[in-house]
Design brief:
This protein is α/β, with parallel strands linked by helices and 423 residues long. It contains twelve helices and 20 strands.
Length: 423
């Protein structure tokens, strides 16, 4: 049976969590394939409002297996706190499994990130300081710790932490901050190991068995194409690859099994963090969109940057993802705008125009070429068919579909599970 990927085509915060929540009732497993606790998925349903930072978005369905794949980096304390809070508010949740191959976010990773963020001369990424980038850095440098190793006892942990702490202390000395120790790191880990031990296990075997039995698996990414380490706005990216192609690695499925790739985009643009954002604008309209769309970071609470829909960036995002369908979210928010602008081309400093998204080092001085659309200025949160949408909204969606080159299959007109139009 197919593997369905749900991925973002923009800067993240496109509404992937609510789409996974919508689809999870009809799949057998949901696998998160990259990222850490540095971004969140917000879900609103009949059980309440939930913000998940690490937990896969299918956890609210009791019959669904939820997996953190080997491509994720896991903070044991953050995971334990999130699961404890969920179990207090929801009586019945899905099964949950953390791959024993996923890497651990250690206390020293957070310390490194904070020290780097405070260092003169360093680029400022608006980091969440949750240790995600250093955890991936240590993984690639082969001085990481895998989640399964937390189950092997304190003696094993101390032995494995010796080279990890030594590597960290090289960085701390260079940064001019206090060094850490194995004792300090162990003390920061030990209280949380019993809290997460029951979730850790082999993920590949049960996932492979489900696929061999013809069951359906959904894989979900964190953030979006424009934050991808290779295809995004480097260096203002995340430290992993939130694209469907990486999902095969980060989840543990065969590439040919990913037969459906749902690219998620907003009806306008938003971004959290630094870096190029060509269609960004400020002023009363941006503030109105931010307030109506509740555009505040799920993990940080920071106000998101607001921009018009960027056809250039979204087309790039959908192509890199290999999107087979497009889901447009938060269309209802634009009911608060009389005139809607969209970016059709990028205008370079020399006046030439681009229809494709260039390498990020070429984005300095780029301006958007905008096209105006008439807004509909009426509420659409109760609409459930395309035919019942205002004609102006249908024209706008037609433009998005044509400019991105991917068929729209779903349109969300509100945060609730049933506030969706099936095209």
């Amino acid at each position: 049976m197919p593997v369905i990927a749900v991925v973002g085509t923009n800067w993240g915060d496109e509404g992937k969590g609510r789409i996974v929540d919508l689809l999870a009732r009809s799949v057998d497993a949901v696998v998160r394939f990259q990222g850490g606790a540095n971004a969140g998925h917000t879900i609103v349903n009949d059980l309440g409002k939930f913000v998940f930072h690490l937990i896969p978005s299918g956890i609210l369905y009791p019959t669904t297996l939820n997996i953190l794949g080997p491509g994720v980096v896991v903070d044991p304390e953050a995971l334990a706190d999130e699961m404890d809070a969920l179990r207090k508010s929801v009586v019945s949740i899905g099964d949950f499994l953390v791959s024993d191959r996923a890497h651990v976010v250690l206390p020293l990773h957070k310390k490194i990130e904070a020290a780097l963020d405070n260092q003169d001369g360093m680029l400022k990424f608006d980091s969440t300081r949750r240790g995600i980038a250093p955890a991936y850095q240590f993984k690639v440098a082969k001085v990481g710790l895998q989640m399964g190793e937390l189950l092997l006892g304190e003696a094993h942990l101390r032995r494995r932490l010796v080279p990890i702490v030594a590597f960290a202390n090289v960085m701390f000395r260079g940064l001019g901050v206090a060094e850490t120790s194995v004792d300090e790191t162990v003390a920061g880990l030990l209280p949380h190991i019993p809290r997460v031990a029951g979730y850790i296990g082999e993920s590949f075997v049960p996932l492979r068995a489900m696929l061999d039995e013809g069951k359906t698996v959904l894989i979900e990414g964190q953030l979006g194409t424009l934050r991808d380490l290779d295809w995004g706005i480097y260096p203002y990216t995340t430290s992993s690859n939130p694209i469907a192609g990486h999902g095969a690695v980060g989840a543990g499925v065969a590439p040919h099994e990913i037969t459906e790739i749902m690219g998620i985009c907003k009806a306008y643009s938003s971004a959290v963090g630094a870096g190029p954002f060509i269609t960004e604008f400020e002023g009363p309209i941006a503030e109105r969109i931010r307030e109506v769309g509740r555009e505040y970071g799920a993990s940080t609470g920071r106000p998101r940057r607001i921009g018009w829909f960027d056809a250039v960036a979204t087309r790039h995002g959908a192509r890199v993802q290999g999107a087979t369908s497009l889901v447009v979210t938060l269309l209802d928010v634009l009911s608060c705008v009389e005139t809607i602008e969209v970016c059709t081309h990028y205008v370079l400093p020399d006046g030439s125009e681009l229809e494709h998204f260039p390498a990020p080092y070429l984005l300095d001085g780029v301006k958007p070429k905008l096209r105006s659309f008439k807004g509909w200025s009426v509420p659409i949160t109760e609409v459930r068919t395309m035919e019942d949408l205002p004609s102006e909204a249908r024209v706008y969606l037609d433009f998005i579909q044509e400019s991105v080159g991917v068929p729209i299959t779903h349109v969300s007109v509100g945060p609730e599970r049933d506030q969706i139009i099936y095209v």
